[in-house]
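re: ur question from yesterday

yeah so i grabbed the chain u mentioned. its 675 aa long if i counted rite. heres the sequnce exactly as i have it in my notes:
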Amino acid sequence: MSALASSGHSWVLLDSVLLLLGAWLAIGLAGLFALRRFKLVAQVLFPIGGAVGIGLFGAAMVALFSGPQTAELVIGLPGLPFHLRLDALSAFFLMIIGAVSAGVSAFAAGYFRHGEGTPPGLLCLQYHVFLASMAGVVLADDAYAFMVMWETMALSSFFLVTANHRIAEIRRAGTLYLIVAHIGAIAILLCFGVLQANTGDYSFANMRAQHLSPFWASVAFLLALLGFGAKAGLLPLHIWLPEAHPAAPSPVSALMSAVMLKTAIYGLLRVTFDLLHQQQWWWGVVMLAVGLATAIFGVVFAAAQTDMKRLLAYSSIENIGLIGAGMGLALVFSSYSMRSMAALALTATLYHAASHAFFKSLLFVSTGAVMHSTDERSLGHLGGLIRYMPWVAWVTLAGVLASAGLPPTSGFAAEWLLLQSFLFTPGLPDPFLNMLVPVGAALIAMVGALAGYVMVKFYGVVFLGQPREAKLAQARDAGRWERRGMRWLLIGGVLLGLFPIQFIQFIDPVTRLLTGAGIGPQVAANGWLLAPTAVARASYSPVIFLLGVAGSFAIAFFIVRRLYHGRVRRAPPWDCGFPGQTSRMQDTAEGFGQPIRQIFEPFYRIRRHLPSPFDAEPRYEVQVEDRFWYGLYLPIAALTTRIARWIGLLQQGRISIYLMYSFATLIALLLWVRR
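ran it thru and got these structure tokens back, copy pasting raw so excuse formatting
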């Protein structure tokens, strides 16, 4: 390996990162030598992998402020070395990969059980190759290295999704994921082909030096949006996500939702703000429209789900949509050289990416703890678990509050910054854009409100009320390693929520790299008040808000317990005059989502089963399905099958027919050359 650094001995940082990635690969290979030694894999190798994640987080944090560093790895094909680059953008996403993987790996050490699909040693290999390949994606500095890492990430995650491959439904989900992933990969490869501008040099340094015409730059952007949008789950390429996330083990679902989707966001940022020489305003409009449509679609479908993991999967689609909307707004500002506003929108985008990584991984691992303790993931069979799993319930509440965007959580800080980007938009040169931006702000506010509705449903149905099944009384709280992983993710999310000003300082090098401006000094000048533009216009302090809430509780407690009467009297709650209430009288997941289904019914494809008056055991069933699946994907699949059958007619199995094909092709080529 030869390393070329920007200054002094800063190359040590990039070498350290590569050594950490090598450690992940070594841990995975060690799993092969302990193929069925469950305790060694779960309680030794996975925790060591989590420690490597902490090391990666620390190295990336230092690299964020150290300037770009490059390296060349002489591996792979002759004459095609891997070019790597560690700059502010890659360091930021390495921080997310390292921090989240540390918590998820610790949780996984207590999560995996004997006899669950793939042997533990092989699962360890797939898991750590997945982690190393995601980090490799954000380090790649040429199309060759990028595509190798990208495909390695896709294949390793496919094997993780299908870990319990004996179940046909899981195999189908994995197949769908792999098909969409490779469609996206083809689009990304074509995008790089356009960016290299017929030079034959596929390094990112060469792509940065090219000045494409507006047409070819737009082609590259649209291909990038298609390719990376397929991995991110942007509409209408989201179809794999609600199937793959529930099929995968919960730690894998956490990594896919919290980290893998962010590699697609990284790819879009790298292409649109770094490799392309300039941006056009309509790119931002397209990105904004796709992002808002994805966010609304995701949150509306999340409200109608009755499966815990599918609900969280659609919630991830919603959050990716918000991130896409922020990126679109940043593109609009950047195209008009409004650098400070572009930096604000991009800061909100990156803040939301980091926030979502922590709270969504926490929610997925919490769901995994519930599933292992109850053997249930259907909301209709849960309830009252706060009595039997209090530790998981209170930790999950923190993730729910962040996902709902309530202060003083990181989810609120990210969405608040995004709203400020929309609301403080100065006059744009285009009247259409001046009309569009306030509409976007209103839609984001609506998505935030619906996200709160979804999280109330999720938490209330799972943890509150009475148990809907007798077996739930046997549920047990999370184990030691599971708690450690959840505690790490909880602490990370809490710190992001309470110290947004400090975290913006970590985002500032990224926005300066991509837009040439940052808001770090401006927000730091206001002390503990987060004011993206001016204190007089809007400000927010999570610490002051938290102290205000705590003070209000303390005053209320003092008044009730000391000044009023100080007595504690326990009595059953009002039961509407009917004392014999059971768990069947509680609101179900279907009932909770019914108002949303009625309001947004055009979004759904609804199938109802109505009972007959003569049924001995009448049942009313409602199935909510995705219109895109039936209106877009199934027709494409049918057309593909028909074309394949037509092409299959060419395969006659007779040598004379094949010679005729060759002769006809030769004649056609000769006629073409003669012209």
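noticed a couple things. The two ends are 52 Å apart (CA to CA). also The longest strand covers residues 604-609.
anyway ttyl
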